[in-house]
Amino acid sequence: MKLTMNSVAASSQRTKTFEKRIAGPEGTCEATSVAQPCVIFRFEDHAIPRVDTPAKHTAIKDLVGSWSKNEERRAALEQARKWVADSFHGGDGDTVRTLRLRKGWSQARLAADLGTSQSHVARIERGTENLSIETCRRLCVALGINMNTLDEALRRQESLAASKAT
Q1: pTM score, two decimals?
Q2: Which of 124, 163, 162 is nearest to 140 (CA)?
Q3: 62-156 has CATH 3.30.1600.10 classification
Q4: Is 164 helix (H, G, I), strand (E, B) or coil?
Q5: Based on C-alpha coordinates, what's the Rg of the chain?
Q6: Which residues, in sequence order, are bridge partners of residue 31?
């Protein structure tokens, strides 16, 4: 059998026929395979076309990062986060998200204090992350709260997540 591929994205070539004798408890039986056409998939025919980023595009995280370097804009961002905490999450009570936003911090800023990633902070805020005691201690120090307040905040955000899921 010749092992060649027409495309790196295509599946394998058709297989050849073979005969095989199998010995079982009742004697020898014969099994024969017949070659059947192999379906070849070209994955590039089904791939989602990639959309190129516009030439003058700036990602939001890059824009916010550059604004954070400017003292005046950083203060405005912190004020905006505090406003979001009160305007959109004020009825939620104390959760990790509202405690972070009331400090005017981004998820990236809290992640830097915790020594973790922004996505980890997002999972904590969604209530989908089981936290170690060490992470809880670091959260308490970063947010300036005690363990009881953190426990209440985590329970509150779990119940909020459960109510949104239903």
Answers
A1: 0.65
A2: 124
A3: no
A4: helix
A5: 29
A6: 20
